[in-house]
Amino acid sequence: MITEQALNKMQIAYILGRMNHLPLGGVAMHDFREFRGDIDLTLFEKCLDDMVVRHGALRTIIDQSHFSQYQTEHAKINMTVIDYSHYSRCEAIEQIDALRSQVSHYKHDLRSSPWGVWFLKINKEQPTDFNTVLFFSFDGLILDGYSISSLINQIICCYKHLQSNNICVADKPSNKDGKDTDFFLSKEEDKTYWLDKITLLKQNHFPWRIDIESIPNSRYQRCGLEISRDRWDRITEYSKKSGVFPNTLINTIVLRALCKLTDSVECYVGLAVSFSLYKNELSNNSTVIPLRYEERKLSLLDAAKDIQSETMEGLFHISYSGTEIARNLCSQFKTSLPFPIVLTNALSWPADPNYSDFYYVSGLTQTPQIGLDIRIYLSSRMTLLIDVDFAKEAVSEDIVNKFQSLIKHQIMEVDAQT
To answer: Vertex 259, ends 257 and 265: CA angle to 5°?
Structure first.
């Protein structure tokens, strides 16, 4: 029996973002990730088949006309296999580059479950060359960022189990108590809290290329910053000893860099939050809350402690968030882009396993109505990665590089104190 369910408010926002009614719209909320290695097609296909059976999100159909969703019983693998082995390696890489440009900005047809994998075969010329390129493409309508990271982690682990002639086993539940929790059940005190809180926010004076309200849609680009494992380990230890969560410290560094970039004493971002971990399922259970930072001549640690309190207090009032806050910000600022800058701290997400024959290379996230999307996470080698995905029509690459230089400079200053 197929049962339809209503889309949550964030999913509805993504549907509207696919259309061309709002600035920086006309794009899907899309997460693209590229992996390479020496990957056996038969084993990989078995892993995908297992994941589609196990996770209903990969069988979910979105009905955008009725703002509803349902799961099919048929387990269909959305995989495209392309054999470039009849090309020279140089020609094959050119073909793959062209395909990447398309897939990284993909807009899935919602008549089927909006996700896909491209399995690309390529000849080796040297023993150390990879012979497989994988493109993972997921629409945020069915999976949030945490869920996508968890899913890919499960696929890789399943593949390695099968490669070792072991049975691919399901992950253990992470939180049995949270599965039936309705995190979006509105509480009046949460509404009161946020309506009072957002009056303190002021519009960011970010150096956009042009008025972002005038940009109908955009293509996206990524610039990445990597911090060595040794340096991040030292900063993590220093942070913990100082009574600050490492993820809060790095969030504060990012917010300070934004202020320096804009020559402002304050700024705010949309802080992305995922409930999928607590729901014990892979799906779209995400929202966003505003996180405000104000320069008050405090040390970095003291500023981080303030941010930590702000974040925890905001999470305690999570039921009134996302689109509800966005509507009020639009009214307050007379804008249609309430959260043009979003920060996602993914340090608690599972890092990809570290294998030489199946490894992450790069990715790109595009989100409608977002001009600057900042993501902080750990690589498979436990280095710290700070990726900035930006709308090219809205933000120059020079500004992004300057922003990341400001972040790196602050990180080096902290490291000098450890």
So the answer is: 145
Domains of the chain by range and CATH?
Answer: 5-176 (3.30.559.10), 178-417 (3.30.559.30)
Q: Helix-strand-coil percent breakdown of the chain, rounded to 5?
A: 40, 20, 40
Tokens standing for 184?
Answer: 């979006």
In 193-322, DSSP assigns E strands to 220-227, 266-274, 286-294
pLDDT digits (tens, 9 = 90+) for 240-283: 999 999 999 999 999 999 999 998 899 999 999 988 866 767 99
DSSP secondary structure, 337-368, as one string: -S-SEEEEE-TTSPPPP-BTTEEEEEEEEE-T
Cβ contact 276:146 at 8 Å: yes
To the question of pTM greater than 0.90 for the whole model, the response is yes
- C-alpha to C-alpha distance for 36 and 128, rounded to whole angstroms: 12
User: Rounded to an integer, what distance in angstroms lies between the CA atom of residue 269 and that of residue 255?
Assistant: 8
CA distance 383 to 418: 18
Which secondary structure element, helix H or strand E, spans residue 313, and what is its range? Answer: helix 300-315
Secondary structure element (H or E) that encloses residue 300, with its range: helix 300-315
Q: What percent of the chain has pLDDT over 90?
A: 82
Please say whether the beta carbons of 363 and 162 come within 8 A: no
Residues with Cβ < 8 Å from 181, sequence gap 6 or more? 278, 279
Question: What is the β-pairing status of strands 266-274 and 341-345?
Answer: parallel
